[in-house]
Write a structure and sequence with these properties.
The chain is of the alpha+beta class and 659 residues long. The chain is 30% helix and 22% strand. An eight-stranded mixed sheet has the order 5-4-3-6-2-1-7-8, covered by helices on one side. A five-stranded mixed sheet has the order 9-10-13-11-12, with helices on both faces. Strand 3 and strand 4 form a beta hairpin. Helix 1 crosses helix 4 and helix 6 packs antiparallel against helix 7.
């Protein structure tokens, strides 16, 4: 007896349905694409319980005639492909004729449709692939699908569905891409009775981007318009200053179809090379229009991947389009400076020592003959000159000549700043200034209190041993604004990376005591626009963020509101940290809370630590070096880079031929 069996038609349909219908989001995608192919200008999608129990898709397209309705639910029945040659130039979103048959096999479907030529519509009911009803119905022009109880007859598939909120967000992600791919269609999304998305359908891509991602994301975009070898590229790319930590917001559409194209993404990032930092990626909403014969969309079951007859023109078109936009539209970042002192209380708290890194004071502008003295509001204005009726005294021309004095609040009373001019009027009460006097400009550094035995400036002790006469180590200073120089004993020169050292100390403090104890409420919540997958990941990991000191709330439509953050982070860094963590949660795909929390501590410490190039006082450098001496096990930063490098005296003397 033979062992090979021919499967029953119903069983074969259930197996085939698994390739098309994976979750409610895939059902919505197929139905809305059919509505677009039918010429609809307005589509409404409504779901309940994440789409598992209820989905309604309504459009105002051409509708279906009564004789076509039952045929449409047969496998491989389609109106978009007739002969083999049609596969070489597919111009519609759907073409395989599998969607309706697959959906009807695993759900309860109720259809109402009417064409413009008909006065009476048609209602068709099919459950589990079996026809239940075909009758007249009063309905407007277009088609309405009611899909209930998805996977009701396949419990094995039902158990793999996620929570309702996760499935609903997956549906929202699909509709976001459809709205961006067809801005000429008004798309409305209703979730649990509440409207979540409504695009105007005015044909303007910027309006669709605004409706999907909001104002902040839209304001950071530059327009793109370019044509190269019959390939038109248009849309928007983000400005370099608005780059993101991952590629989740790179949306590419080819002939109105959302695809994942490695060629287009590589061209995009190559065009931004040199304009964004390493580890940052541009965002985009790019449309590519080309001949249908130049691209094959019949590659992937979900139609997400395509193949090009020739990839080089596609790469060149995207590259030159983005490069041209950068040259024309990009502008320097505008920053509004506030006249206030920048405080870093969290940095002091996390270090356990009163180490504060201040902004570098601005040096006074050098005065020349062509410049008048600067009016500084913080300086005491000079006393008015007495009116002298005598003829001005002409002095020899010299760059060191002076005409006025002012007293700096940072210097003792005897320190004065003197500006050069050609002729001055000198009162009789100042005969001592009859000769030109050159006085160097004072350094704007607060005067240190005088002590009986003041240590030479630039060489403070940081170990403070019992024997002050012979310290074991001395701080020499800082080079390149990055590395601390320290002499250790008589035989070693130690170079310390201040950012790496500070970062590791903060990281160890967070690991030991947690980030929640250092949280602070933000005066104004920071909003973060995310991809729907990242959006779901953040909402599912709220407890993880709370442990790290973040309070995040659902702001709606793919946006997260950050209401509190660790003390060491400002508003911008807090938003960027949440954005990076969201991408990490999606990429990791593992539920390892300890690993996630550890990564988040890395991120917080890196952003809160003093940066290379920041101004640091000698006291701050000494305190940081002292903390390192108290923690000898701290040798590498959280990223694995060494904190310090030792150069022996012998190796140094070899470079000068002394050894």
């Amino acid at each position: 007896m033979g062992k090979i069996n021919v499967l029953d038609a119903h069983v074969a349909e259930l197996i085939a349905a698994g390739e098309v219908v994976e979750r409610p989001a895939s059902v919505i995608k197929e139905m809305v694409e059919n509505a677009i192919d039918a010429g609809a200008s307005a589509v409404t999608v409504e779901i309940k319980n994440g789409g598992i129990s209820y989905m309604r898709i309504t459009d105002n397209g051409c509708g279906m005639s009564r004789e076509d309705v039952p045929v449409a639910f047969l496998r491989h029945a389609t109106s978009k492909v007739a002969v083999q040659d049609d596969l070489e130039s597919i111009c519609t979103l759907g073409f395989r004729g599998e969607a309706l048959a697959s959906i009807a096999a695993v759900a309860k479907v109720d259809v109402m449709t009417r064409t413009p030529e008909e006065t009476m519509g048609t209602r068709y009911v099919i459950e589990g692939g079996e026809e239940k009803l075909l009758d007249d119905a009063g309905c407007p022009q277009g088609t309405t699908f009611l899909i209930r109880d998805l996977f009701y007859n396949t419990p094995a598939r039902m158990k793999f569905l996620k929570k309702d909120v996760t499935e609903a967000n997956a549906v929202a992600g699909v509709l976001d891409k459809i709205a961006l791919s067809h801005p000429e269609i008004s798309l409305r999304f209703i979730r649990e009775g509440k409207e979540q998305l409504h695009t105007p359908g005015d044909g303007k891509l910027k309006s669709a981007v605004y409706a999907v991602y909001g104002r902040d994301f839209t304001n950071g975009l530059m327009p793109v318009e370019y044509e190269y070898e019959h390939i038109r590229v248009w849309g928007f790319v983000s400005r370099p200053v608005n780059s993101r930590p991952n590629r989740s917001m790179q949306q590419v559409f080819i002939n109105g179809r959302f695809v994942k194209s490695r060629t287009a993404m590589a061209a995009l990032e190559e065009a931004f090379k040199g304009s964004v930092m390493v580890g940052k990626f541009p965002a985009c909403v790019l449309h590519l229009e080309m001949a249908f014969q130049a691209v094959d969309v019949n590659v992937h079951p979900s139609k997400l991947e395509v193949r090009f007859v020739n990839e080089r023109p596609v790469f060149e078109a995207v590259y030159h389009a983005v490069k041209t936009a950068l040259q024309k539209e990009d502008r320097p970042k505008e920053v509004v400076l506030e006249n206030r002192q920048l405080l870093r209380p969290a940095a002091e708290e996390l270090r356990g020592e009163q180490i504060s890194f201040h902004q570098k004071p601005v040096a006074p502008v050098a005065q020349t003959e062509a410049l008048r003295p600067m009016k500084m509001p913080s300086l005491t204005p000079p006393a008015p000159k007495p009116v002298i009726e005598k003829k001005p005294v002409a002095l020899p021309r010299s760059d060191s000549m002076v005409h006025d004095t002012w007293r700096s609040p940072y210097e003792p009373a005897k320190a004065q700043e003197i500006f050069p001019i050609e002729e001055v009027e000198l009162p009789e009460a100042q005969p001592s200034l009859s000769q030109p006097v050159a006085v160097p400009a004072p350094e704007p550094v607060p005067a240190q209190p005088q002590t009986e035995k003041e240590e030479p400036e630039g060489t403070p002790d940081f170990l403070e041993p019992a024997a002050k006469e012979a310290p074991a180590s001395r701080l020499i200073g800082e080079v390149f604004g990055t590395y601390i120089l320290m002499q250790q004993g008589d035989g070693q020169l130690v170079l310390i990376d201040k950012h790496a050292a500070h970062e590791r100390l903060l990281y160890e403090k967070l690991r030991k005591e947690g980030g929640g104890s250092y949280a602070q409420m933000l005066l104004e919540p920071a909003t973060v626009t995310l991809d729907k997958n990242e959006y779901v990941a953040v909402l599912d990991a709220r407890e993880l963020f709370e442990q790290a000191g973040f309070e995040v709330d659902d702001f709606g439509s793919g946006t997260i509101a950050v209401r509190s953050a660790p003390l060491s982070l400002d508003k911008e860094d807090a938003a960027a940290a949440v954005m990076e963590m969201a991408g990490y949660l999606v990429t990791a795909r593992r539920d390892l809370t300890t690993e996630h929390l550890d990564w988040l501590y890395h991120n917080i410490a890196c952003r809160a630590a003093v940066k290379a190039g920041d101004f640091s006082s000698m006291e701050e450098l000494a305190a940081l070096a002292q903390r390192l001496r108290e923690n000898p096990d701290v040798r590498y930063c959280p990223h694995g880079r060494p904190i310090s490098v030792v150069i022996t005296r012998h190796e140094l003397e070899k470079q000068f031929g002394r050894a």
